Amino acid sequence: MGTKLIIDTDPGVDDAFALALAARSDDVDLLGVTTVFGNVPLSHTTDNARRLLRLFGRDDVPVAAGAARPLVYDNAKPAGFVHGQDGLSGHAGTLPEATRPLDDRGAVRLLVDLLEAADEPVTIAPIGPLTNIALLLAAHPGIREKIGRVVIMGGGVTKGNSTTAAEFNVWSDPEAARRVLVDEDIPTVLVPLDITHQCTVDTGWLGKLAASGPLGAALEAFTPTYVEHYTPILGFPGMVMHDAVAVAEAIRPGTLDTESYPVDVECGFGPARGATLVDRRRLRSTDPQAVPGRTIDVALTTDVDAFRDFVLGRIVGGL
């Protein structure tokens, strides 16, 4: 097998595409999936993840439920108006029932067990709020050596979406995001809104997906509420592939062009709460005005057409 991967997720339409991308890639050893609150409450994200894996023919992949709320301040709000109240444009109930029982170890214990059992470093792709990952690293600091890298969909260098300053995943639990992005010493790639908003697909692309067969048609059926939300934002009928962008990089390192910058997260209670502060000023590390966070890789550009072809090819053909 190729990349050993664990996905931490809150499905979510774009999460469904991200899971499909990993589940349908022959060069990915999908070790497990953990769920977190986010786009919809934990009960929905967990049920959606299990049912989606069943749809993708991956009942071999364990799923464990994680955090139902942020680490400290429970003021996160679901995004049902973007994804539908069930997370999948009202079509979650059309998915096949999961046959594999929910793993009763819970998200953090499953993460630890999978990492400890791995014979090589594992990539973790957190594509929801970072609560589970913060809890893992706080409770099991020795597990860091088993993690090859963390590829995170979250944050924004120049923009937000939940607020003017903050992207949804980071805004949902800024304290957890700061723990993972700033306080830990693990190779990290941050995939912010600045690049995910480049990676759009239109209804023509979605039509090709739907025409490819039952799986593609099922995925396309999850998108109406999502497309309705993004159409006025994009100026054309289509959607943004946020989480699939991060998973593409997790699967194939170098898919995204990255630059290394110091990063911090605003955890105050003003209008900038949840903002990711990416210091692109190229200041010397000794400069007292530099952002104090550690340096991580931030993805800013990619070949968008190649990305679209990659996602479609993997989902349709498992290439």
Tell me the quaternary state. Answer: single chain
Number of strands: 11
CATH class: Alpha Beta
How many domain modules?
Answer: 1
CATH structural fold name: Inosine-uridine Nucleoside N-ribohydrolase, Chain A
* Main structural class: alpha/beta
String of helices and strands: EHEHEHHEHEHHEHEHHHEHEEEH
Distance between the termini: 14 Å
CATH architecture type:
Alpha-Beta Complex
- Number of contiguous helices: 13
Q: What average pLDDT do the residues reach?
A: 94
Shape: globular
Description:
By secondary structure, this protein is an alpha/beta fold. It is built from 13 helices and 11 strands. It has one domain: Ribonucleoside hydrolase-like (Inosine-uridine Nucleoside N-ribohydrolase, Chain A). The chain has helices at residues 13-23, 42-55, 80-83, 106-117, 131-139, 168-172, 174-183, 193-196, 203-211, 214-221, 224-234, 242-251, 304-317; strands at 3-9, 28-35, 63-65, 122-126, 147-153, 188-191, 200-202, 238-240, 256-265, 276-278, 295-302. The strands form 2 sheets. The protein has a 9-stranded mixed β-sheet, sandwiched between helices. It has a two-stranded antiparallel ribbon with strand order 7-8. Helix 1 (13-23) runs parallel beside helix 2, helix 4 (106-117) packs across helix 5 (131-139) and helix 5 packs across helix 7 (174-183). The radius of gyration is 18 Å and the shape is globular.
